[in-house]
User: Fold these one by one.
Assistant:
Number 1:
Amino acid sequence: MRQLHEQKSSRHSFITGNVVRLSKRFPARKAAPGPYHVVAQLPERDGQLQYRIKSGCEPFYRTVKENELESDVEGTVPAAPSNSSAPEPGVRATRVMIEGR
């Protein structure tokens, strides 16, 4: 059987789950200050790799070019010793408190 889709090696700098910020090199825009989570790697457009990102402060996703992003070292959680309940590397740990419980 012939393979319909070829696997190309990804040249993306960020992977799904990485924590990023919008770069300060670009003009200010009406956007949450960050951090953002990379939700998906998108195909190249006009020679630029793209990503779908999501902030916990906004109800929608943003599509941005790779050169508009910076890694958010402060927002990442270091890899924990082998413990199945530990978060994956690059995923921000969050504690949610529910009132009345």
Note: Confidence is low (pLDDT under 50) at residues 1-7, 78-84.
Number 2:
Amino acid sequence: MSPKNGRSTKAFQSVNKAGTALSGRALNRYNAWTAIRKRAPNAGFLTPVGCHTWRATGVTVYLANGGRLEHAQQMARHESPRTTKLYDRTKGEIALSEVGI
């Protein structure tokens, strides 16, 4: 809670059971995934999407706009830059040799 206004400082909050108001609790990953899956078809997605879809999109957009791999790695909280490169879709597709297969 913010001491000044009494409102929660969570960027992504869950909603109450009725779905009519923010709860003040952080949105957990299961609820985020459910919300994404539920809304994706209405947004025009023809294939299943999930949290990693958005993670890959974020990394790709960041790198396509001149971001550095090391910074994308930090933002994605990856231990290895090789993992972050798996999310980079700037080249369209990933060669198996890039991931050591």
Note: Residues 1-46 form one domain.
Number 3:
Amino acid sequence: MVDRSMGYEKDHVKARAPIVVGVILAITVIASFIVCLYFFEGLMDWSKDKDEDIFIMHAARELPPAPRLETKPGLALGIQRAKEDARLETYGRTMDESRVRIPIDRALDYFIKSVSNVRADPPEAESKGDKTNESVTPDPQGASGK
């Protein structure tokens, strides 16, 4: 028979197993963390005693032994960056020949001017309910439509 005075069937509720598993899991996580800290501190002490660098990236900063592919490391990168800077700061033609490139500062000025023209709606037009925008973007093909 079912005892209805408790509001549930007592033989179906067994909370002990999940609680025990949760406690064991928590103890395992804490123990693993402590073991990792212990090993990390041990490795740090070992590296200080050996005068060796255990971190791979520290050793990567040194130049490899000869023969080297570049006799002056960084020279080619400096030349490449100078060429790119010159392209970004001067006028010129693109590979398409129908287009030109402009310096970045000039392009930023054009961009800022175009964005400010698009967003600048007169407050009178908004109050009157007029939704027209007086700033018109130019047609890239011209007015003739060619």
Note: The longest strand covers residues 92-93.
